[in-house]
Design brief:
By secondary structure, this protein is an alpha/beta fold. The protein has 3 domains: 220 residues, Ribonuclease H-like superfamily/Ribonuclease H (Nucleotidyltransferase, domain 5), CATH 3.30.420; 90 residues, Orthogonal Bundle (DNA polymerase, domain 1); 81 residues, no CATH class. The chain contains 19 helices and 8 strands. The strands form 2 sheets. The protein has a 6-stranded mixed β-sheet, with helices on both faces. Strands 7-8 form a two-stranded antiparallel sheet. Helix 2 runs parallel beside helix 3 and helix 11 crosses helix 15. The longest helix has 21 residues. The protein is globular. The two termini are 49 Å apart. The N terminus is likely disordered.
Length: 431
């Protein structure tokens, strides 16, 4: 069987080029844009010169709610290559070609200003790009995917499915993995990019109405406030470690080694201008953690180790492994495993009760908590509140209160196609 090259840099580039060519070859008509006062019906304006950029900035500056998205290529460099910026209002959509401008700061200042709300949907990478180019976090960002999770929709809910809860809008098939750095872009590509912001103001209004009905506005504000924290925009190396550890039972020295190697991988990736997994794939990182080689030659013999990386950065990897041997990283807090039947029943009971309480309150359980988080909290002694971020802990505290306070009970009924707390009357606006 020939090797699978689809995940190699060359294979991914080939796929992008193929989709780009296919979008040009597809001469079929695009679906009509729904006729709605809050949906821009005109073809998006492609901005390639200073006059067009000035017009876009003037238009956006006059609105109190605007939308923002980007198209980028992220698998070829440490920082994603920005290829297109989509911005819009209830009236117009602009597609800005960043390759035509040396300075986009005037536009970015409008997007980051506290004078207006800037909408994104699942916008982590888009906001990281904005933060890096502007040098500071944007203010008053609202992520409609987060709003959806607090407004009775599933988490995470794609833009297409979220929009279809509001209006029948046949959006073009996904073209995320196309050659966004190629020019010219096809009509199909431009329409796909425009639709990523075209519906956000309408979706925002719909979701905020539901959130206010549920009484979740404060939760939504707290959840979106994290975008203003500079630390939020940095690569989360601790999260990388949690994912790599998974359910493995690692010794303390292995945990130390993995932590140091993840930090070293990030440094190497930045110096090579490549994504971290391109310089050291996860399986190679875990082999280094497990074997802890003591020479550059041994590092070079690890299966899957990129030879140029081993040659240029083998000493840095060895130094990282040595540092891990000498460091005093604290072991993780001792917690019980839920292997015992009674513990598993207890965690399952709490988890399903929490899910029912959350769904009845119009909150997608997964936006605030996972079963693993619940298990860690319970088996660790139920100290504080479960949830990783403070805003998530606020939500879980409110939803778990009926289970934790003496004299309280969880009274939930199935009405109008959804779970509802018994004291709450059915609402025709709720899905």
């Amino acid at each position: 069987m020939p090797p699978d090259t689809s995940k190699s840099p060359r294979g991914r580039r080939s796929r992008r080029d193929q989709q780009h060519q296919a979008s040009h070859a597809d001469a079929g008509s695009l679906s009509p844009i729904p006729n709605h006062p809050d949906i821009p019906s005109e073809t998006a304006t492609l901005v390639v010169d200073a006059t067009g950029l000035g017009e876009a900035i003037e238009h956006l500056s006059a609105h109190d709610v605007i939308a923002y998205d980007t198209e980028f290529i992220g698998e070829e460099s440490y920082y994603p290559e920005l290829c297109l910026i989509q911005v819009g209002s209830r009236e117009r959509v602009f597609l800005i070609d960043p390759f035509e401008f040396e300075d986009l700061c005037p536009l970015l200042e409008v997007l980051a200003s506290p004078d207006r709300i800037t909408l994104v949907h699942a916008g982590r990478q888009d906001l990281q790009i904005l933060n890096r180019l502007l040098g500071r976090p944007a203010l008053r960002i609202v992520d409609t995917q987060i709003l959806a999770g607090l407004a009775g929709l599933p988490w995470p809910c794609s833009l297409t499915k979220s929009v279809q809860c509001v209006v029948n809008a046949p959006m073009p098939p996904g073209m995320t993995f196309t050659a966004w750095d190629a020019r010219p872009l096809s009509a199909k590509q431009l329409r796909y990019a425009a639709d990523d912001v075209r519906y956000l103001p309408l979706l925002h209004a719909f979701l905020m109405k539901r959130i206010n009905t549920y009484g979740h506005a404060k939760w939504a504000d707290e959840a979106c406030a994290v975008f203003e924290d500079p630390a939020w925009h940095h690569n989360d190396l601790s999260n990388q470690q949690r994912k790599l550890e998974g359910s493995r039972r690692m010794r303390t020295v292995e945990r130390r080694t993995l932590q140091h190697l993840i930090e070293t991988r990030d440094t190497i990736a930045r110096s090579e201008n490549k994504p971290p997994r391109a310089v050291l794939p996860d399986n190679v990182l875990m082999a280094l953690t497990r074997d802890r080689p003591e020479s550059a030659e041994a590092i070079g013999r690890i299966k899957g180790m990129p030879r140029p990386i081993a040659t240029r950065h083998g000493d840095a990897m060895l130094a990282s492994i040595d540092a891990a041997r000498e460091s005093t990283l604290s072991p993780p807090p001792a917690t019980k495993k839920d292997d015992a039947p009674e513990d598993r029943v207890a965690v399952d009971s709490l988890w399903h009760a929490f899910c029912a309480s959350a769904l009845a309150a119009g909150v997608s359980p997964a936006i605030a908590l996972s079963r693993a988080d619940m298990a860690a909290w319970y088996l660790g002694g139920c100290h504080g509140q479960p949830g990783r971020a403070p805003w998530q802990q606020t939500i879980t505290a409110a939803l778990l209160a009926p289970l934790r306070e003496p004299g309280q009970s969880l009274d939930i009924q199935w009405r109008a196609g959804v779970l509802q707390h018994a004291c709450k009357e059915p609402n025709a606006d709720q899905v």
